[in-house]
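Subject line: Sequence and fold of a protein, written as structure tokens
Body of memo: The sequence and its backbone structure tokens, given next.
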Amino acid sequence: MHKFSWDLFNTVPVVGIVRNLPMDLIREIATAYADAGLTTIEITLNTPGALQAITDLQTILGDRLNIGAGTVCSIQELDLAINAGAAFIVAPVINDAVISKCVANNITIFPGAYTPSEIYHGWSLGAEMIKVFPATKLGVDYIKDVLAPLNKIKLMPTGGVSKENCAAFFKAGATGVGMGSNLFPKDIIQKQDWAMLKSNLSEYTALLREIKAGKE
């Protein structure tokens, strides 16, 4: 079983979300991601060929990346993701059975929650970090407000996180962030300009390392 490395994640605390990108290009995308110094990538299960992509990426990049499965909403999907070699699990919702099975089997899971009650419930079941989703409408102040009473919980806002507001989320207390289309611009991927993609991703690596250095 592949294990999630917190040390790797914490060097550049972002989960890059690959959703509905072409199967034949995911290897190139993930390679550019690793070459740019990013460390944690999620392939959502509603991406065609997701399970095969996870297995393939573990073979070629498993020593450089945390490779996980996203949009895991049921035990059946969880089992498929684990069998494919996912090192961590991300969900858009709180599913008690999914979280409990992950915790029992020492599998890292970041379930999605919206309200303080959902966030606390996911954490109380044993999830090590909670994905606050969608963060688009909630904004930076919501993270700060939730962490005032729930300061022991690690939060990962996802949805609407950008180069412009990334630092503000961390300043508000986020442990990590989840990002999709901003990391993987469709125009660059359509052109298959991997040098440009690596350059774009490298900017995020530099930004996140700078933010992390400022917090320490």
